[in-house]
Design a protein that fits this description.
By secondary structure, the protein is of the alpha/beta class. It contains 16 helices and 25 strands. Helix 5 packs antiparallel against helix 6, helix 6 crosses helix 7 and helix 13 runs parallel beside helix 15.
Length: 503
């Protein structure tokens, strides 16, 4: 409460949009205007693209933009813009390094070249600003000025001189730095009004990943921490870290059908809104089919649903659904069901969280993540997966969403284990198991946890038919079903016995 009161007491400032919606969200509306900012990062992390997006957004708002380049030619900048489908019309590009500057006539013999070049560079920048009178400026890059200065004291004085100059010209300035110095230049951090860091890192498999972090921003509250981002055709895209406290809502805990009357009875009435249910069991036992049945039931109620598919192709999923009488093709065509097939090597955790958030804001009332095993591969470690899933699940619960998580366990019978234990994060756990009886491989299902309803403690037989999922009676004459090695101690009928009688 005290933090909210302190934030509300901060006066509103004019903002300069960065041209990147996610970054503006992190900053609470954009950069405070008429200040100087530092954007730092290693080569290839997206600094130039960010700078161009900042200037392009300015042209959309009718603000003049100036790109001052010491390290790249204007031709290279046009190439970058064309790769994103941009036109730099309306943006002035001032290139300090020209063919004339490289000619033998430009060499100095009496004074040290760096002394002359640094002064000429500073004067050239000031002259360009005076001529163009821009509202937005991007200076690329400080590493060149650092080399020209030769001396940390001279370098700091030149940066301070530029800051003082820009402060009287009513423009917002972004300085780009490739962090080529041996140590982090904290002097720049102290001079700049705000500091944004871009990072690029390589996983053991898959493409490089990028992250952005606001290190410092004077006078405004901002969302701290690391935020995933991606350099795509069309520019840099930032995926703000999900903060559940910003999305609190009310829900009544209504129970809705999971697609089977018998399964609803086992669950204690069905699936509760504002809760999540973990489907856990070995591969091939029927977890995905049960999730499709529950999703289809939501669609038949007229609700929207989002299904995130990591493990198999969409064609395989739809073919199996049709064979079991659980067709969803029509719902996909009319936009009521959105199925997103994802490659865990390509999607970052932050991007996925923003996908889920976008689906909920688009009206989805049921969300399925299939499966957590593949999603784990997108994370740097189990600890991060648990933190990320905690934020996502809390957000979904607060929005009153029915969430289904699928977790495949290793093994078929006997000792069965999972990649990660998410049972404590889940509001309910539906456990699937194979077991052997009468020379056949059968399936069983049981609810081992539910925070939202008084569920049955029985273990029921389970199977997939052409009419969908079927849940039988309690396996009262069996012991050891959940271990996969059951002992038969009675004469109860099984679901398969009905097929024998029919024949």
């Amino acid at each position: 409460m005290r933090q909210q009161a302190a934030q509300s007491a901060i006066p509103e400032q004019q903002r300069a949009s960065t041209g990147i919606a996610g970054l503006d969200h992190v900053l609470g509306g954009g950069l405070p205007a008429h200040h100087l900012y530092l954007v730092e990062g290693t080569p290839g992390c997206g600094k130039t693209t960010l700078g161009l997006q900042f200037l392009l957004r300015g042209t959309e708002l009718g603000e003049k933009g100036l790109y001052i380049t010491l390290s790249e030619t204007s031709g290279e900048l046009f190439t970058v813009a064309q790769s994103h489908g941009w036109s730099l019309e309306g943006i002035e590009i001032f290139q300090l390094l020209t063919d004339e500057g490289l000619s033998p006539d430009a060499e100095q013999s009496i004074l040290h070249p760096s002394e002359v070049e640094l002064g000429e560079t500073t004067r050239g920048v000031m002259a360009a600003v005076e001529r163009v009178k821009p509202r937005r400026v991007v200076f690329d890059s400080l590493s060149e000025m650092r080399l020209l200065a030769q001396n940390p004291l001279r370098y700091r004085r030149q940066v301070l001189a530029l800051k003082s100059f820009f402060s009287t010209r009513n423009c917002t300035v972004i300085l780009l730095d490739d962090r080529s110095s041996a140590h982090d230049d904290l002097q720049l951090h102290s001079i700049a009004h705000g500091v944004i860091t871009l990072e690029q890192y390589i996983n053991a498999y898959g493409p490089e990943r990028r992250r952005i972090r606001v290190i410092k921003m004077r006078g405004i509250p901002f969302r701290g921490g690391e935020h995933d981002c991606a350099l795509l055709t069309g520019g840099l895209e930032v995926f703000p870290r999900l903060v559940t406290n910003e999305h609190r809502g009310k829900y009544d805990g209504e129970l809705v059908s999971a697609g089977s009357r018998q399964l609803d009875a086992l669950l204690g009435g069905g699936l509760a809104r504002g809760s999540n249910m973990l489907f856990s069991g070995p591969s091939g036992v029927g977890k995905t089919t049960t999730a499709i049945a529950a999703t289809r039931e939501a669609l038949l109620r007229g609700e929207k649903a989002a299904y995130y598919l990591f493990d198999e192709s969409l064609g395989t999923l739809l073919t199996r659904s049709r064979a079991l009488g659980l067709e969803v093709d029509a719902f996909i065509r009319d936009g009521q069901l959105h199925i997103e097939t994802l490659d865990p090597a390509e999607v970052s955790p932050g991007e996925f969280a923003n996908m889920v958030k976008g689906s909920v804001e688009g009206g989805a009332r049921t969300v399925v993540i299939d499966s957590l095993n593949a999603y784990l591969q997108a994370m740097p470690g189990d600890k991060h997966l648990l933190l990320q899933m905690h934020e996502i699940l809390t957000y979904l619960n607060q929005r009153g969403i029915v969430t289904i998580l699928i977790l495949a366990q290793h093994g078929v019978v006997g000792d069965i284990r999972g990649d990660v234990d998410l049972s404590y994060l889940s509001d309910g756990v539906l456990l699937f198991r194979f077991f052997e009886a009468r020379g056949s491989l059968l399936k069983a299902v049981s609810v081992i946890k539910s925070r939202t309803s008084a569920h049955e403690l029985t273990i029921r037989e389970f199977r997939l038919t052409r009419e969908g999922i079927e849940v039988g009676e309690s396996l009262t004459d069996f012991e050891g079903v959940l271990t996969g090695v059951a002992n038969y101690r009675g004469g109860m009928a099984l679901l398969s016995d009905r097929d024998i009688k029919v024949r």
